[in-house]
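Notebook, bench 3.
Goal today: get a predicted structure for Probable membrane transporter protein from Flavivirga spongiicola so we can plan the truncation constructs. The sequence was checked against the plasmid map this morning, with no discrepancies at the termini. Length recorded as 263 residues. Pasting the sequence as submitted so the record is complete.
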Amino acid sequence: MDSTQLLGYIGALIVGLVLGLIGGGGSILTVPLLVYLLGYNPVIATAYSLFVVGASSMVGTYQKYKKGFVDFKTGLAFSFPSFVAVYLSRRYLVPGIPDTLFSFGDYSLTKEMGIMIFFAIIMLLASFSMIKKEKNNNIISKSQPYYKTFIQGLTIGTITGLIGAGGGFLYVPALVVWANIPMKKAVGTSLVIVTINSLIGFIGDVQTLEIEWIFLLSFTLISIIGIILGVFISKFISGKKLKKGFGFFVLIMAVYIIYKELK
C-alpha cells in the first residue's frame, strides 16, 4: 500500500466519523478525496460516493435507531420522491450531459469541471447553513402537506443525484424546518433517507459504469468503522460547535475546488 492509498483510507475513516457525528457531510469529503487525492474521474467519484455514503449511513441508521433518534414514517415520506429523482438523475441525466458544456475562445467547460463546480456551489450553501447562528424560535410549525414534501424530495433528490451526495446536509435542516422534528431525531432520520437515496442512485450507476469493487468495498468498510466511532463519540462532543467547525472546513474546501477547476 503506497502513501496515497493510505491517505485515502484515512480519509474514508474521517468520512464515516463525520456522518456519525452530524448525520451528513460524508459526500462533501468523499468526492474531493476521490478526485483530487486518488485521481478518479468526477463521474466515477460521485458514483463511488453514493455507495460509500449509503452503506455507511445504513449502519448509522441502526445505531441511531437503537437510541430512539429515527422517525421512519417521516423519513420514508421524504425518501420516495427523492430516490426516484436520484435514480433517474444517475441513470439518465448524468450520462446524458455532453462532454463539453460550452466553449469560449480557447476555454472549454467540460462535464467533469461542471460537476465539480456545481458540487462546490452546493458545498458553499451547506457551509453557510452550518456556520450561521441558529435562532431560538419557540414557534411550533405544523407539518406541511405531503405534496410539498414530494416536490422538496424531488428537488433535493435531483441535486444529490447530480453531485453524488447522500444529501444529509440538505435533509437535516429540511426535517427540522418542514417536518418539525427535533434536531437529534432529524440527524437520525436523515440517515434513513441518505441510505435509500444513495444506494438506489448507485444502482443507476452500476448500469452505466465499470466499478472497482475491491477498492470500493474496502473503502466503504473503513467508512463504516468510522461511522460507528462517530456515533459513539457524538455523546461527548457539542453538536453545535462541531457543526460550525465543519461548516468552516466545508467553506474552505468549496473555495479550493472552484479555484482548482477554474485556474
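DSSP finds ten helices and two strands in the chain. Strands lie at 100-104, 107-110.
Flagging this for group meeting.
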